[in-house]
Amino acid sequence: MTARRERFPELDFFRGLSVVAMVLYHLFWDLVYFDLVPWDLLGDDPVLIAKAIGASFQLIAGISLSISYARTVEQQGPGGIWRKYVLRGLKLLAWATGVALVVYFAVDMPIFFGILHLLGTAIILSPLFLPRPRLAGLMGLVLIAAAPWAAQLPAGSWWLVPLGIGEAEIPMADYYPLLPWLGVVLVGIWLGSVLYPGGKRRLRMQALVRLSSLRGTAWIRFCGRHSLLIYLIHQPLIFALVFGLYTLLAN
User: Fold this and answer.
1) What Å distances lie between residue 4 and 8, 32, 44, 70, 200, CA to CA?
2) Domain for residue 207, yes or no?
3) CA distance linking residue 233 with residue 139, whole number of Å
4) φ, ψ of residue 175 in degrees (nearest 5)
5) Alpha-carbon torsion 211, 7, 115, 19, what sign?
6) Using an 8 Å Cβ cutoff, are 110 and 100 in contact?
7) Domain contains 101
8) How many C-alpha atoms does 251 have within 13 Å on its Cβ side?
9) CB-hemisphere CA count at 13 Å for 29?
10) What per-residue confidence (pLDDT) applies to 111?
11) Number of structural domains, the chain?
12) Residue 28: which domain range?
């Protein structure tokens, strides 16, 4: 197996845990949408749970970008880096547009800048920071720290919504503005350079490898390897199942 194809099971494992948590949260959201369970079942503000799950995806995405960049430079040199990540980000933004359209017509709630928009934009911008992981970490902390201040600024246009400037008054099904969430990806890029320098795992991380390789975790790693596919198909499936349950109970 070449270094290019090698996967780190611990990253697949933790990404898989995030996928499982996401599916369970969306199941809860669908149950609330059809008034089958109360919104406060998971606490006063279940959105905080969703944001924690989203942050885990973003942090792992940053780590993975760092690994991908290090391997690409080692094998091909720095040429073509912008093209690679711009094209990858644009593909993710295309999927984000499709998801936004489906959600709008299904539940009549817009997604102006959801998690796929955020990750696609972060990937496009990542070549600015991948060669400079310390700058990425510092800038990430600055963006995270500036987010509460930016949210208090008057938003004169909905075009500012993706930046996180001003409080978004329109109910949205998914909202991850660049402030602070791009900062989480940038911190992930720095963390990846520390934990996987040159795209290679540090020896002291073997405990994570053993944890992620425990019996029964293979399906979690499978989810981690196919996170985008699961993200795209899981919500229509569980929404249909919950709608079927709602119809059955209503009759």
Assistant:
1) 11, 43, 45, 10, 11
2) yes
3) 34
4) -150, 110
5) negative
6) yes
7) yes
8) 5
9) 20
10) 85
11) 1
12) 9-250
Give the separation between CA 179 and CA 146, rounded to whole angstroms: 7
Q: Which amino acid is at 145?
A: A
User: Inter-axis angle of helices 47-76 and 115-125, to 10 degrees?
Assistant: 30
Do 51 and 181 touch, CB atoms closer than 8 A? no
Q: What phi and psi, each to the nearest 5 degrees, are found at residue 209?
A: -65, -45
For residue 177, being part of any structural domain is answered with yes
Give the Å distances, CA to CA, from 70 to 13, 125, 203, 248: 21, 16, 18, 53
Q: What pLDDT does residue 241 have?
A: 94
In a domain, 42, yes or no: yes
Task: For residue range 148-193, list pLDDT tens digits in order.
Answer: 888 888 766 777 888 888 766 667 788 899 999 999 999 999 999 9
| Tokens found for residue 135 | 């700058």
Return d(Cα 130, Cα 85) in angstroms, integer.
Answer: 11
CA dihedral sign, ordered 80, 60, 161, 113: positive
User: Which of 139, 84, 150, 95 is CA-nearest to residue 118?
Assistant: 95
Q: Could you give the CA distance from residue 202 to residue 149 in angstroms, rounded to a whole number?
A: 37
